[in-house]
Amino acid sequence: MSDLFANLGLGFAVALSLQNLALCFMGCLVGTLIGVLPGVGPIATIAMLLPITFGLDPVGALIMLAGIYYGAQYGGSTTAILVNIPGEATSVVTTLDGHQMARQGRAGIALGIAAIGSFFAGTVATLLIAALGAPLTRLALVFGPAEYFALMVMGLVFAVVLARGSILKAVAMILIGILLASIGTDLETGQDRMTFGFAFLTDGIDFSVLAMGLFGVAEILRNLDQSETRDVVRQRIGRLLPGLTDLRQAAGPVLRGTAIGSILGILPGNGAVLGPFAAYSVEKRLARDPRRFGQGAIEGVAGPESANNAGAQTSFIPLLTLGIPPNAVMALMVGAMTIHGIVPGPGVMTKNPNLFWGMIASMWLGNLMLLVINLPLVGIWVSLLKVPYRLMFPAILMFCAIGIYSINATPTDVMLIGAFGLCGYLLIKFGFEPAPLLLGFVLGRLMEEYLRRALTLSRGDPMVFLERPVSAVLFAVSAVLLVAALMPALRRSRDEVFTEA
Amino acid sequence: MKDATTRTVRSLCLALTATLGLAGHARADAFPQRPITMVVPFAAGGPTDVIARIVAEHMSRSLGQQVVIENVTGAGGTTGITRASQAAPDGYTVMMGHMGTHGAAPALFKGLRYDPAKSFDPIGLAAGTPIVIVARKDFAAPDLKAFIAAVKSGGTSINQAHAGVGSVSHSTGILFDAKTGAKPTLVVYRGTGPALNDLMAGQVDFMTDQIVNVAPQITGGTIKAYAIATPERSTVLPDVPTTKEAGLDDYEVSAWNAVFAPKGLPKEVGAKLEAALGKALEDETTRKRILDLGGTVPGSGERGPAALQRLVESEVARWTPVLRAAADGTP
C-alpha cells in the first residue's frame, strides 16, 4: 500500500510539472474539440500530431496524446446527444436516450450528467490501474478465442435487450449488421468477399462511415422532412446543469457503468466496445419502468457514458503492462512510444517508472481538467441548438464529409455516408432501429474471427465453447438474458394470437 | 463566442487542407517547394510507420519542406502502394514500401495493379527489421534444433500464429515452414498485437515476426526466442543466437523498408530525395533511433537506387515460389 502512495507521489510529481500540466491541458482541449466534430476521431488526430511531439520529452508527449484520446471520449458524447451522431462505437448507445433528452429540452442535463459520470468513472478507473494494473493483466491472458466468442455472443444478446420496439425487427437489424461486417477481405484466405469487384470494399466498410450515415445523415433527412420536430429541440432549453434529483437518479447507473466499463476495458481485442451496450442493458433490466428507455431516461445516458470512459482508461492496462494494444488508438500509442524510444512491454513499469506513473497521474488530472472544460462548455453547446436548422445542417454535413475523408483519405467513403444516410432514413420510416444494426456490425467481424480461430485451435470441435469454464459461464448468462428478454414478447404474441382468434 | 467558434472552425479547416497536401504546383528545378507526402501503406504506429516517421523527420529538415506521412492501409499494404504508384511522378508523392508490398505481394494478390520491379523509381533502402523466431514461454525445446524437431514431429498439432495474409509474419512464417519441412496448423490474427497476446497466454505455439514487435516481450520473459534471422546478432537481443549459429542455414530474412517514387521521376528530383534519405541515415540520432528498435541501418553501398532495384528483383524471385506453393497446398 505504501508502495502505491510512493508511486502515485512520483507520478504526480511528474504530471504536475508546469510543462506536463500544459501538455495535458492541450491534449484534453484538442481531444474535446475533435470529439465534438463528427467523424474527426482520435486516430486521425493523434496520427497528425505525432510529428509535433518529436521535440518533446516522451512523458510529456504521451501525456498529451493520452489526453486527446480520453478527451475525445468526453467530446464524442456531445455530438451524440446534440445531433444524434455517434463519433465512435462507444457512443452509439448515448444517442438513444441522450438525443431524446435534447429533444425534450434537457440537453444541458444530459451533457452535464455525461461529464460528471465520465469524471467519476475516470477517477475510479485511474485508481484501479494504479492499484491493480499488474494483477489485472492476467485477466487478459485468461481470455482465449473461445472466451471472446462467448463474450461477443453475449453482446448480441444485449442488442436484443436494447431494442425499443419489435424484437423481430431488432433481430433482423442485427443480422443485416453481421452481413455488412462480412464484406471485405477474408482474414484466413485473403480472398475478397461480397465486394462486387469494387476496390474500395476490399477492406470492408468503416464503422464511422456506417454510423455517420445511418445516424447522422439519416437524422438530418428526417429533420428536414418533419418541420415540427426540429423546432422541438430549439423550443425550450431548460436547465443547464443536472439538479439534485437528476444526480440521485444517475448515481446508481454511474456506479454500475463504471464497474462494467472498467472490467471490459481491460480485455484486449476491443472488449471495451461492449461496455456502454452492457451498461445500457443492465440499466434497462433494473429499471422499474423499462419503457422510459429510449424516451430520454437519464439512466440511459449516465450508465453508458460512465462505462465508456472507464473503459477508455482501463484499456491502457494491457498497453502499459503487456505492451499489447487493445484497439487502434492504443496501437497508435505504441507507435508514439516506439518513436520516442520506449518500446512498451512488460518492462515499462520497472524501466520507466516516470513514464508509467506520470501517465497514470496525468489521467486523473486530465479527467479533472475535462470536467472543468466541459461543464462551462455545456452552455455553449446547448446554445448551438438555437442556431436555425437551415444553417446547422449544412455545417454538420460538411464536418461529416471532412471527418470521414480524414480517416482513410478515400472519396468513396464520403459517398457511402450519403448512401447509408438514405438507407437509415428508410429504416426510420419503416420503424427499424439502426442501433442493433451497428452493434451487429461491430460484433459481427470480431465474432467471425474468434469463432474461426477457436475452431481452428480445437480442430473443429465445437465442444470447446462448453469445456472452457469462462466461456461456458458466458454462454449460460447469454441464454438466461435471452430468455428473460424474449419471455414478455412471447407471452404478448401468444396473447395477440388468442385475441385475434 | 460565435466569432471564436468560426475562427476555430476556420483554422481547423486550414490545418486539414494543409495536411491533405492540397497546396499548389511547383517545378522540378526548385524542388521541393511544398510539402512532400510519404504514403505509408500500413496503420500508424506499426513498425513500418515508425521507421517512416523517424526517417521523414530528418528528411523534412534537410529538404526544407515537411515530409508528411499519410497512412493508406489495406490489402497487405497494396492499397496504399497502388494509389501512390498512380500519383504524378513529381517527387511530391513518395512511399515507404517493404518486403511485403515489393517482394511477397505479386505471389499473394492476383489482381495486383503494379509491378514491384517496373512501376517505380527506387530512391533507397531505409532500414531492415530482423525476423525473430519466437515461441510460447513454456515450449519445452531448449534450442532451435530441438525446436524444429519438435515442430516437425508435432505435425498439424502444432499451432503457428500469423497476423493475416500478406503480413510479414505470414510470409516469413511460410518460408520457415518450407525451409524446415514443418506442417503446422496456421492460426490467423488481425494484426500482431492479438497474435502476441495469444502466444503469451500459450494458446498458440510459435510465430515469426519483426524484432520491433517481439523484443520487449522476449526481454520481459513472457515469450521465448529461438533465433534471429540475420547474419549477426542484434544489440537489442544479445543473447539470441542467429539462425546460422543455431544450425538453420537457409533462413535469413529481414522485413526491409525502402522509399520508392512513382515511375518517371525527374533525375534531379530523385537525386535530391536520395541525398536527403542518405543524410537521414547518416545522422547519429536517427541511426540510434532505428538501432534502438532492433532495426538495422544499411551501409551507403547497399542502399542506393541500383542496390534497391536489385533487392526488389531478388525478393520477388525468392518469395514467389514459396508463397505460390503454400497457396496451392491449402484448399
Describe the overall structure:
The complex is a heterodimer of chains A (501) and B (331). Chain A has 501 residues and is an all-alpha fold. Chain A has one domain (2-500). Chain A contains 22 helices and 2 strands. Chain A has helices at 2-15, 18-36, 42-49, 58-83, 92-103, 107-142, 145-162, 167-181, 207-225, 227-235, 244-266, 274-286, 299-314, 316-322, 328-339, 348-351, 353-384, 389-408, 411-429, 434-457, 464-467, 469-500; strands at residues 184-185, 192-193. Chain A has a two-stranded antiparallel sheet with strand order 1-2. In chain A, a hairpin with a 6-residue loop joins β1 (184-185) and β2 (192-193). In chain A, α11 (244-266) packs across α12. Chain B is of the alpha/beta class. Chain B has 2 domains: 2-128 and 256-325, D-Maltodextrin-Binding Protein, domain 2 (3-Layer(aba) Sandwich); 130-253, Periplasmic binding protein-like II (D-Maltodextrin-Binding Protein, domain 2, 3-Layer(aba) Sandwich), CATH 3.40.190.10. In chain B, the strands form 2 sheets. In chain B, strands 1, 2, 3, 4, 7, 8 and 9 form a 7-stranded mixed beta sheet that branches. Chain B has a two-stranded parallel sheet with strand order 5-6. The longest helix of chain B has 25 residues, at 305-329. The termini of chain B are far apart. Mean pLDDT of chain B is 88; it is low at 1-5 and 18-28. Classes of the chains: A mainly alpha (501), B alpha/beta (331). Chains A and B meet through α3, α6, α15, α18 and α20 of A and α1, α2, β2, β6 and α7 of B. Chain A: This is Tripartite tricarboxylate transporter permease. Chain A: InterPro entries: DUF112_TM (IPR002823). Chain A: Keywords: Membrane, Transmembrane, Transmembrane helix.
